Amino acid sequence: MTLYRDQALKALIPHINDRDIVVAVYQSCFDWLQLNPRDLNYVAVGAMGQASSHGLGLALANPDRRVIVLDGDGSLLMNLGSLVTIANSGVTNLYHFLSANRVYEVNGAHPLPGADQVDFEGFARSAGYARAQSFYELDRFTDDLPGILSAPGPQFVCMEVTAGEAFPRDYAYIHSAKARQTFRDALSRG
């Protein structure tokens, strides 16, 4: 059975509460914004590789909120050192979900270097995350989500995905001052 990114994100939605911060990049961001538009969606597009670092900063500054990072494998490869920093930061409220489709999807679906050899779960485990695991099937992913999101972090989830439904890439919104102001206002409201 195949795990489609849009189905995995849809499975995540019921577990997101109105205080959770969601940091999403590139295609995961476009998909998430269509599937679950909300004011506490932090868009980190334009900073390829920085979702995990932005998520860490938000987790440190908001220890009473869960921070869910929706990362891409191409993006994470550009900032692997963030795994060690996150794992050793002391945060317990960060949940790092990686969509691993083994290509730079938004940039033309070019294959990742070493695409068939890279072990993202292994990277996170070696870095010292509280737990790291991989999922290939929707049913198991859906069944395990409550436990993942209730365990202390940092938690790392590698979703070995196929693209699934394609959602529009609204670059104008994700690069807009409005997107940032909406997020700041929601965060300030507490």
Work out the radius of gyration.
Answer: 15 Å
Question: What would CATH call the class?
Answer: Alpha Beta
Shape, principal axes of CA atoms: globular
Contiguous runs where pLDDT drops below 50 for at least 5 residues:
none
Q: What name is given to the CATH topology?
A: Rossmann fold
Relevant terms:
Rossmann fold; 190 residues; alpha/beta; seven-stranded parallel beta sheet; 9 strands; 9 helices; 42% helix; single chain; two-stranded antiparallel sheet
Provide an overview of this structure.
This protein has one domain (3-189): Rossmann fold. Helix content is 42%, strand content 21%. It has 9 helices and 9 strands. Helix 5 packs across helix 6. The radius of gyration is 15 Å and the shape is globular.
